[in-house]
Task: structure prediction
Amino acid sequence: MLGAATAAGQFLGFSVGNANGSLITVSHLLFADDTLFSGGKVTLIKSILSSLPTYFLSLLPIPVKVAKRMEELQRNFLWNGIGDDCKLHLVNWSKVCSPVKNGGLGIRYLRRFNSALLAKWLWRYGEENDALWRRVIGAKYGNDWGGWFTKSVSGAYGVCLWKYIRSGWLNFSKFLRYDVGDGTRVKFWVDVWCGDSPLKEVFPDLYNISRTRDASVSEVMCYANGRIFWNLQFRRFVNDQESHSLDSCMDLIYSTKVRGVGSDKLCWKLASRRGEWVLSLPSPPPPPTATPFPWKMIWQSKVPPRVAFFSWTAALGKILTIDNLRKRHFVVLEWCYMCKRCGESIDHLLLHCPITYEMWSMVFCLFGICWVMPQRVVDLLDCWACNFRCHHNIVI
Ligand SMILES: [Zn+2]
Result:
């Protein structure tokens, strides 16, 4: 793919030669691969390799086989480079693709990115009522109640693209809530407009005795003189237990901001402001750990990218020390090459080895700092981050 992109003129690079006619053509990718090392490769992957297929991913579902192959190219470029022999991949790809705050590099999963881009059509379908494409889709498949999305798509021919996009509505709608205007397109009990769940799930006892279970908000809401009143109707009088639920329900409804006029709108639960939703699709939560990953200390320090990348691999415990090599079934002596005594681990090599510690002590003495070395590299970075937050004037 990289070779094809270069051949197609996507990355022109530059040529170096002399009067004798010898000419060497160097593409940007080859130049970056030779000079930027892993820190720069991360930037290249994010800005180029992950972004090249964005246009196609926003229109078409990516086949699983293609996504795997493209991610394999990204993995090989990150760890191997171009044209080099196969090297060890130090960090699991799922970790690499996790958010930076969770200890990853924030590289996109192509299939998840593809799902987010295709889900945007569902969002636009509910928002762009007058758009031509929306009217064409609506005429072909028919609108469901409220007009936020189409009816289920059936058929075998000529429907596969919208059928695939429409199939994501159930998962997509979990992250939506409605901003109620006149309330004609939002169902009072069923849709999420008041709190984080539908009222029928929060107050099932009231829903069971409701006379208008499928009513829209506008049918329950009375708007007069700039004030809003609610008229809930039940099949019978509420009992004592249900009266408590009714009080809570009315408190919740009256505490919810409702405009009362204008059109109803979609809201993205996870976005702090409109327009952020495409890239804020939720990622899996990080595993619970005792120490939060010191991502700011690693990636926001004023150090070269290769140093930050090395710190990242060291904090994850993935650099190729003797213990990690033995885990990968390399036959090597289990000893430290510097002090020749005990087993070599990352924490030993970088923090606790007598020779390393002597160097640390020298640096600390130069700056007049008394320091007790923590057990692990990640703990050291974390406590440095805390120390710098408290004392901004400290310089090491
Ligand atoms: Zn040692």
